[in-house]
Amino acid sequence: MRSRLALVGVAVLLTVALVALSLLYMDPFPPRRIVLVTGQPGGTYDAIGHEYKRRLAREGLRVELQSSAGSLENMQRLLRSKADVAFVQGGTYPLVPDPEGRLRGMAALYREPLWIFYRGRPVTDGLASLAGRRIAIGAPGSGTEATARALLTELGLPTSGDTILGLSSMEARRRLEEGTIDAAFFVSSYRDVNVAALLRHPDVRLLSFTRDVAFARNFRYLTPVRLTEGLLDLKADLPREETTLMAPAALLVCRATLHPRVVEQLLSVAREVHGGGSLIDPPLRFPTREGVDLPLHDAADSFLQRGESFTSRLLPYWALRWVVQFRLILLPLVAVWVPLFKILPWVLRWRGNRILERHYALLRDAETGIDAAAAPEVLRTGIARLEVLREQIEGLARRLPLQHQRDAYQCRVHVSLVLAEARDRLRELESAAAR
Q1: CA–CA distance, 130 with 184 (Å, rounded to integer)
Q2: Burial class (CB in 10 A: 0-12, 13-18, 19+), 135
Q3: Helices marked H in 225-316 — which ranges?
Q4: Pick from 391, 381, 327, 313: which is nearest to 359 by CA?
Q5: Closest by alpha carbon to 111, among 58, 162, 187?
Q6: What pTM, to 2 d.p., does this model score?
Q7: Are 87 and 49 in contact (CB under 8 A)?
Q8: Is the peptide bond before 287 cis (omega within 30 degrees of 0)?
Q9: N or C: which end of the chain has fewer CB within 10 A?
């Protein structure tokens, strides 16, 4: 019984240790909830975030949305572990220190052009004509601000001062419509309400990049996007002339520790939302790894190359969570208890044999002492030892498993045989002493 309890105790300790190691070194349980940072309220990132939230909720993954000033703030929140996933504008990652490599890219989702709206006379020589004008370059911490400053710096134009204003998209649109500023930068989708409103405003013009190839070579994260006349609105004929814009990609970025199953689920939704393309993006191009300017998450790299894992294709997210949890618990149980039940009969058999061998050793020693005894007192002591041994074996026979009963009964017979011989020898000695 003690041996069995010891084996069970060892098995329990091994099981606990293996479960702990599984939780430590294998995938942790997929979370039920994640935090997704979008962007400014009412913007494109905000609208897409709500669509992601709706679709992920159907799979059993709850999403908490957080608004922000823009891409730089989004990455700062990821680095501070205040969020799990964020929409980020391509080209902004180098602006955020990440010495420990805690951020990972998941995919490029779509192209979001840089729209530069201005008032006044037509601009024919590109951004240089905006020198000296009052310009809104985007909210502080936004991707729009980062791109605007990079372009203005490259062209030798000022990036600070009374004429450079850090305004949100909605505020920049309002002030541009009122005429209190001369130009405004927006990095956003053509579906953005601010972009759509300014395209229709009669006093506002859209700047076209005349040196798109040069900008693309100097800023690797920017690609030219040509908007033909009427592409965005045939009825209103918007834009009213062919226009060339420069566009970074909208990226999905996460912390390096994000669970692989969550990455797959997010990219599955991204494929549903963005895979059909748009007026400026061809179908089936997005999501893609092209344009991602930070290290890819391993699960994202696998998804973009080979698609979802088999379990992710087979099961909804809520069921997948249970499968992962059962795997982490059942594998250690199988690893410990299956071998235990195979070894246990052998261990019990070995243990029973050892006990019987020990009693046979005692029987042999008692028999040797009886054969060598020359006095009745010595024989009586040997007989007493044999009777104790017989009682021990009788008790042992009741405890040993059936496979040892035959050996136990044989041991009892042998003890009885030696005991009978000892008593016969004792009677002979006592008779000899009486004569």
Answers
A1: 10
A2: buried
A3: 260-274, 298-306, 310-314
A4: 391
A5: 187
A6: 0.68
A7: yes
A8: yes
A9: C
- DSSP strand pairing (183-187 vs 114-118): antiparallel
> 330-336: long-range contacts at Cβ-Cβ below 8 A with a sequence spacing of 24 or more?
331/18, 331/22, 332/14, 332/15, 332/18, 332/19, 332/21, 332/22, 333/15, 335/18, 336/11, 336/14, 336/15, 336/18
Residues of the chain with CATH 3.40.190.10: 113-247
Q: Which residue has the tokens 């070194």?
A: 25
Residue type, 331: L
Beta pairing partners, 118: 183, 205
Q: What is the CATH number of domain 343-434?
A: 1.20.58
| Selection from 143, 314, 120 nearest residue 219 by Cα | 143
pLDDT tens digits for range 112-164:
999 999 998 887 768 888 888 999 999 998 899 999 999 999 999 999 999 99
Paired with 260 in beta bridges are none
CA dist 284 and 277 (Å) reads: 6
Q: What does the alpha-carbon distance between residue 270 and residue 220 come to, in Å, rounded to a whole number?
A: 24
pLDDT one-digit tens code per residue, 336-379: 666 766 766 666 677 767 777 887 787 787 778 777 777 778 77
* From-to residues of CATH 1.20.58 in the chain: 343-434
**What are the helix (H) ranges across 155-230?**
169-178, 193-200, 212-218
The domain 113-247 is classified under which CATH number: 3.90.1150.10, 3.40.190.10, 3.30.70.270, 3.50.50.60? Answer: 3.40.190.10
Q: What's the angle, vertex CA 354, arms to CA 351 and CA 356, rounded to 5? A: 110
At 85, the amino acid letter reads V
Find out whether 193 and 218 touch, Cβ atoms under 8 Å.
no
